[in-house]
Amino acid sequence: MIYSKKNLFLLILSSCLSGSVLAEDAACEKVAPAQLNLAQAMERALQCGPEFQAFRWQYEGQLADAKILKQRPNPNFSYGVSMLNLHPSQYPENRSRMETGTRIDQLFELGGKGKYKIRAADALEVAAQYDLKFNEKLALVKVQHAYFDLLAATQRNQDLRDLSQLNIRAKEVAEIRHRAGDISQFEYQRLLIDIQRTQNDLELAQIELVKNQTQFAQLLAYQKGLESLQLAKNWPTPMQSWPTLDYEKLLQRPDLQALRQKTISAENQRLVGRALKIPDPTIGLQYNHQPVTGLANNGTINTYSIGVSIPLFVRHAYQGEARKAEVEYYQARDQQLRAERDALQVVLEQEKILKANQARHIRLQEDILPAAEHAAKSAEYAYQKGAIQLLDLLDTRRTLRIVRSEAAQIQAEYAKSQVLYRLLIEVEDLRP
Hints:
The protein is α+β, with helices and mostly antiparallel strands. It has nine helices and six strands; from the N terminus they run αβααββααβααββαα. The protein has helices at 5-18, 38-48, 50-70, 113-179, 185-220, 247-250, 254-275, 319-384, 390-425; strands spanning 35-36, 76-84, 98-107, 230-231, 282-290, 301-309. The strands form two sheets. It has a four-stranded antiparallel sheet with strand order 2-3-5-6, with no helix packed on it. A two-stranded parallel sheet has the order 1-4.
């Protein structure tokens, strides 16, 4: 989502006139709704998320830096009185009442400094566009990650609550069988321990749920209402095919384009630093006004003068500024080349992670989880009928608890890896 300069300026101006920052606009409700889907969460983050507002302020700051870089030196205006005679009638030989001088001085940048600065500023503006575009996408990825983490935490919490309810019924059956002498004290104590462990896991899951709710609320600028918020289960569908990666096309990704433009800007700044060894003259034009009194044939005398001043590089010739510009250029170029060199490997690594998570997700959802749930139900029924020992029941429950926890976790990991993979392979050219 790219904002034009005019729209962004109007947005900032309206915020300033209302006396509040963008994230605290009246349209941003502080209370979370009862239900929310992924698309609504992303739209809310774009409008009210503090990270998005920070990126847009950063974008405005980058545009301001570019505008400052484009500015050429202003002329200097000066006005002065060179001689003042308060009593000209008493001293006729000093006929001048007052002599004034009006002067304009203008600094001229030589060596192409102005041209290089404009080129550097233009590159900075384009880099700011790319930075804003990629940062907003990256922030949306963060919102989606938080959404999936909250979904997984909610699912784990619900699964453990269901297991706790099963434990309550199992404890009632075990108490009856223990009093009847069907199970030993050792088995009964094992059941109580397993129930306590499940309760501990539930409390840990509740803590994790609160953390995820807090993180999600911060990203969407909600202050309350997250406890009753129900998220739509907008899990991404498994990818059936993988796009063919073209390295040359991959280099058009916004973050890499931004680095390339920053290198171009730094290169022109380096040329400015090199041109600093050429002194910039200041040319001044002065108008002198000398009114006179006394004889009738004496009139006003107006004269003009021109002057040139050139700085003398006696103590230094801006070697420090030139060296700093050289270093900043090489730093920008190295960062760009390193990012371009590693871009394909990062994508291939993320693709491997995505494929592995997808395989784990499918295996858990289609094979392991159904088998664990079926085994747990069969064990519950068999235990109530006295067909299996208590230890066998505890083993199947423990297995179900672990599998459900892994299933929720891997589902979130798969969803997050898919979102990140799409970001890494998405390219867009914003050049005018």
